[in-house]
């Protein structure tokens, strides 16, 4: 059994030495540290290296669980992956998170269940909200800047000879060229030369 530490600091200029010292003092033989990588990204370089290094029976030591993931979805996925690898988890600042003991495993299971329930509830509420909005005739997302008048101007500019470039149309309409392309691509009565 090897005790492996993992630390993460959100910004490159932040100092990770305090976390590293705490983990080593608590018995970590090796510590992996990510600098400046978002907790909302799962494939952080040192985390990937840490997961490759961990073996069945090892203990992963963290200061807090939020070092592993910044969203409940990522955190739950990560915890399941560690469980599948046979790796125990221990948090220095959250005593209930310690799967090396029967009581810790039981408490951890309860915490994980409630975290999953919260994620599922948020997902279900979002789905119901979107369905209700659609039933009321509302569609989510930002309103488009490409009004029917602007789409018509863009189409005419593309169909003139020679056709205006995407950048020229975008500058004329004061929108991005990708916005113009999307608008013409989704327009039901687009002309044959509108997307060339």
Strand order of the largest sheet: 2-1-3-4
Biggest pleated sheet: 4 strands, parallel
| Rg, Cα atoms, Å | 26 Å
- Unreliable residue stretches: none
| DSSP summary: helix tally | 7
* Span between termini: 62 Å
| Strand portion | 5-15%
Question: Oligomeric status of the shown chains?
Answer: single chain
- What is the name of the CATH class of the largest domain? Alpha Beta
What global shape is seen?
Answer: elongated
- What is the average per-residue confidence, as pLDDT, rounded to a whole number? 82
Which superfamily, in CATH terms, is the homologous superfamily of the largest domain? Answer: Resolvase, N-terminal catalytic domain
CATH-level-2 architecture of the largest domain: 3-Layer(aba) Sandwich
CATH topology of the largest domain: Rossmann fold
- Count of discrete structural domains: 2
**Helix proportion range:** 40-55%
Question: Structural class, judged by helices and strands?
Answer: alpha/beta
How are helices and strands ordered from N to C?
A: EHEHEHEHHHH
Put the structure in a nutshell.
With 196 residues, the protein is α/β, with parallel strands linked by helices. The protein has helices spanning 17-25, 45-53, 72-85, 102-135, 148-159, 166-173, 177-186, and strands at residues 3-9, 30-35, 59-62, 88-91. The protein folds into 2 domains: 3-116, Rossmann fold, CATH 3.40.50.1390; 148-186.
